[in-house]
Amino acid sequence: MSDKVVKQAKNLDNNFRYEISEKVGAKSLLKCIQCGVCSSGCTVTEYVDLQPHRVVASCLLGLREEVLSSNAIWTCSLCHRCTERCPKNVDYSFILALLRNMAVKEGNVPIEYSVTINTIYNNGFVIPYTGGMKTTIDRRRNKMDLPNIVGPNLDEIQFIIKETGLGNLIKKEEDDEK
Ligand code: SF4
Ligand code: SF4
Q1: pLDDT for the residue 172
Q2: Which of 29, 31, 40, 53 to mutate to test the pocket of ligand 1 (most atoms within 8 A of CB)?
Q3: What's the domain range around 32?
């Protein structure tokens, strides 16, 4: 996201802050005083396009699209330091987890995540255990006297992925490829 965002008032989502705060309860972002303590102690602050206090400000201002498409919500390591240090008890790390869920519902996730889900959906493993990869893994395990890998129940895995809504990400990836 660029440093400067110009947006007409009619394009702001004024309900965004309430949508988030009603799920966070007492540790709501509505109490934020923009002191910046969360950003000063953030362990990934130099890698994000929006620092924590700016994410909070953007939520308060109704910049829904900018927040949900920022890399900040995915780069966070969920170390909870911001939450522990906030003088106003804003639970920023929880808010971030919430923002991730919102972004996923809108099919807005980094490609690395949807590719990984696709691999799990098709193989049952994070790393494909098929073809040449399977041969290599099996050979190395044999050398180390490790037992054979027992494959998971793929039907169960695919059922869980579909039921939890993660399947929407696979569908989005397929749509993007068309
Ligand atoms: S530390 Fe808390 S009050 Fe200060 S900017 Fe961050 S969220 Fe807001
Ligand atoms: S929980 Fe995330 S945003 Fe908060 S300090 Fe840790 S990395 Fe930064």
Answers
A1: 58
A2: 53
A3: 9-105
